[in-house]
């Protein structure tokens, strides 16, 4: 007699509406694809060859100490919510400072953990948003941004973490786009970035004693973006990344005496996405984003010539950190066949060392397919690109396609490990395509501005052109296409579900904006002006009318294909109301709508049990509406 099917019951923190019961047989089939881990480097110990990393063993990512390459991961924090960034006190590592929020609210607090006792002390006020903590070289000063004064403005505060009572306001600022980057050697000045938009930011020099700010990058009329700045050892200048006079962000040297910056990587026609100066200042490591591929490179700061870089596989690299004790360069890397793990590179020996080897649920991932870079022409002949993952060759005939749109919109899809999504490739035989539509970073500052304000629908039309391209591919099934994405990718999914309902099978939107007017009115105040620079100012009557015309919410009657909406209740970026109003409106069409809301999550699901349930429901949704 066949065994009766049993079903997975959603946990009390989940609201699941319209989602059919999830069979335990599906959970068992998918299970191994949810049991992967990932690890990322956070910091090196200042005197020992040890690493501080982030990885997950229970429901959320926590801090772990790794005392040697391949060594045990000793867990340091044990919270229900993920722990964010962390840094050792930079002289002896007697303590570390880490950040953590509650329930995905992003109102992070700073904490001190004493390494000997593991005692934890709250350093901030417990209610405001506190970010971007940076130590002085001597470790007695910690500067950070906090919204505690107004709830919206990111003022600069400073304390000695061993004496939290020394906490003081250094400088009052206007807006939420300020963050400190680096102390000088003496600890009396800090270089501070003022972020206006992805194409416009400024560097300031802050006196921590007086609180006075001096503008280092004059406002000349040309919009210039600075993402990185670090003091040279002699304190006379800054190593920066800048796109002054260029489409792309280059490594440059900016003297503090007011003379012009010197650009050093004009031979690289791509963005420099990250950089880090070695402890003695003799080398800079940097990452070139070459058509979405991360290339790690090194520069001799004495003669400004490039050094031989390490040989690394194609993948995603970030989180550059130098070890003061060994001179190694640490970084985090993932490939199509390997999840994110921590590595180091020794410039003296040329040796690359893997510090962590994250589990993959017992799956053999060595044969997982690499991403294929594909291109298509959009409506205006602009070339758009993306990364296509194909299923194993045992799947024959035209394959269903998942179009997975990144967030941001100033973001970029890059090739790496697909984690749970490998199930879609390997077991369902689905192709997954990650487009980088106009507005994506990595392709020049003109490209990233092509979707701003009144040009917003042009990015939607890039997806329409992609659907045309899919129709021309004999191995792709244009009748079985699912759109999905998170954050701005969720907004794109909703918008394109109204525009191309006759060309898709279904859509899944996670934490996506359903109306840019209501989004701008209700997103947290500290980020409102930053988003207006991208989407337009809803307080302007003309812009407001335009945003209402293109709002997916106001076009919801056009959504005739099944829709799955995922949302975190505590999302400070895209409020819960954006999902609720969309679900309520689309249901009036009689269109099938699945809705999953987690009461203990924010802008995306961070806890493994919630991620797992969402994925089980996603597979069920795809089986029901895409795989037919």
Notes on the protein architecture:
The chain has a domain at 7-34 and 368-625: Rossmann fold. Helix content is 16%, strand content 36%. It is built from 10 helices and 39 strands. Strand 24 and strand 25 (283-290) form a beta hairpin. Helix 4 packs across helix 5 and helix 6 (516-522) runs antiparallel to helix 7. The relative contact order is 0.11. The mean pLDDT is 95.
Terminal-residue CA separation: 29 Å
CATH architecture of the domain at 7-34 and 368-625: 3-Layer(aba) Sandwich
Round the Cα radius of gyration to an integer and report it: 24 Å
> Any low-confidence stretches, pLDDT <50, length ≥5?
none
The CATH superfamily of the domain at 7-34 and 368-625 is known as Alpha/Beta hydrolase fold, catalytic domain
Major β-sheet profile: 9 strands, mixed
Q: Any idea what the shape is?
A: globular
The top-level CATH class of the domain at 7-34 and 368-625 is: Alpha Beta
How would you write the strand order of the largest sheet? 2-39-38-37-36-34-35-33-32
Number of E-state strands: 39
Question: Roughly how much helix do the residues carry, as a percent range?
Answer: 10-25%
Q: Give the CATH topology of the domain at 7-34 and 368-625.
A: Rossmann fold
User: In terms of structural class, how would the helical and strand content be classed?
Assistant: alpha+beta
Enumerate how many helices there are, as a single number: 10
**Beta-strand residue fraction:** 35-45%
Mean pLDDT value: 95
